[in-house]
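look at this record:
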Amino acid sequence: MNKELTSSFSVKLGKNGREIHQMLQQVYGKCALKERTVFKWVQHFQEGCEDPKDDARSGRPCTSIGNENINRVCSLMLSDRRLTVRMIAEELCLGKSSVYTILMEHLDMKKVCAKIVPKLLTPEQNLRWKECCTDWKTLEESDEFL
């Protein structure tokens, strides 16, 4: 059980911050939360907050995963599918995690062996794939393949 939930439980039992801190020290020793942190959590829970996670904060929005960068990554991938995430990141001056997120979530691509490819083929690509397979099968049957 994490220490914040222990604090929440103890607050519901009517314990104050000092008592909770002493209990945490008995259990966790030197690894216990600092007294000031316990007081902060006690106040947080007394105000009615049940979730020990911090509230979302306004901050600087993520700018690396925008439509412009998605289009840049897409065009670079279409020009050479052998590029790695690191190579794309260096080429476009983006972070590797941003490039990875763009490829996986926004462009719906995944890594297969050493190449990053679309997860699902478009109808045109699927038709072309079937045509290629049929051609290979015909070549194999006619011994022209080798």
User: Anything to note?
Assistant: The longest helix spans residues 123-141. The longest strand covers residues 109-112. The mean pLDDT is 78. The two ends are 65 Å apart (CA to CA).
